[in-house]
């Protein structure tokens, strides 16, 4: 995304604004789903909010801009308070991912619509040849769609404390739950691995997801 700043600052500002709102929606989705299942921890701590400032993680946001993947500040939840533990854990964990995936689809369809309105302007803006209003808007929305796709796919990875690990956890035997929750204390090690050993493979997975996604929606 940082390359977009040099290509078109206005499109970068649009994409960055969409990114901050998308991060807030992701965490709001977790908080709201938890509230529906009987856990009001996030609401009491002020996290049932669409204010991006309540959800941003400085390092995670910076990585999204510089490296193409990252995270927001996790919403605190108390799974034992869920009315139905397994279902609650699954729905709460998948809520943010579903929101980001839906946003990625809607934004990609918006780019497709803008291309239909002004195909030459969009193509020339993407190539950096000229800047048209339609093209700049399409460029910003394209990056916003890509970032939402990245958030969805990245959070699906079964690495604690990412959402994918809790989705998997919701399907495993109840007797395993105390051990699985104890892994949360080693979140720092997971992030260290993500930034070093796993960085290359994760970027390859994200690149494959982007090619498949935009190949389907944009051709």
List keywords for this structure.
219 residues; elongated; mainly alpha; 11 helices
User: Total number of β-strand segments?
Assistant: 0
What gyration radius follows from the Cα positions, in whole Å?
A: 18 Å
Report the structural category.
mainly alpha
How would you sum up the global shape?
elongated
Span of the ends, CA to CA: 21 Å
Helix content: over 70%
The proportion of residues in beta strands is under 5%
Describe this structure as you would to a colleague:
Helix content is 71%, strand content 0%. With 219 residues, it is mostly helical. Helix 5 runs antiparallel to helix 7 and helix 7 packs across helix 11 (199-217). It is elongated and about 60 Å long.
Give a nutshell description of this structure.
With 219 residues, this protein is mainly α. Helices cover 71% and strands 0% of the residues.
How do the strands and helices of this protein lay out in sequence?
Elements: H1 2-7, H2 9-36, H3 41-44, H4 58-66, H5 85-117, H6 119-127, H7 133-156, H8 163-171, H9 177-182, H10 187-195, H11 199-217
Helix pairs in contact: 2-5, 2-7, 5-6, 5-7, 5-8, 6-7, 7-11
């Amino acid at each position: 995304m940082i390359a977009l700043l040099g290509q078109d600052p206005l499109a970068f500002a649009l994409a960055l604004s969409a990114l901050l709102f998308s991060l807030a929606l992701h965490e709001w989705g977790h908080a709201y789903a938890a509230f529906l299942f009987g856990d009001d921890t996030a609401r009491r701590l002020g996290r049932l909010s669409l204010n991006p400032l309540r959800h941003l993680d400085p390092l995670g946001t910076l990585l999204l801009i510089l490296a193409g993947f990252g995270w927001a500040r996790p919403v605190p939840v108390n799974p034992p308070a869920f009315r139905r533990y397994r279902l609650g854990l699954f729905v709460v964990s998948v809520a943010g991912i579903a929101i980001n995936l839906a946003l990625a689809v809607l934004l990609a369809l918006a780019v497709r619509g803008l291309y239909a309105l002004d195909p030459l302007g969009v193509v020339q803006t993407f190539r950096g040849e000229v800047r048209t209003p339609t093209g700049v808007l399409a460029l910003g929305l394209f990056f916003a769609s890509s970032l939402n796709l990245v958030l969805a796919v990245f959070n699906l990875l079964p690495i604690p404390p990412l959402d994918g690990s809790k989705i998997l956890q919701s399907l495993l035997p109840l007797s395993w739950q105390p051990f699985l929750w104890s892994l949360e204390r080693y979140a720092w090690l997971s992030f260290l691995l993500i930034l070093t050993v796993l960085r290359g493979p994760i970027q390859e997975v994200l690149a494959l997801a982007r090619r498949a996604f935009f190949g389907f929606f944009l051709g």
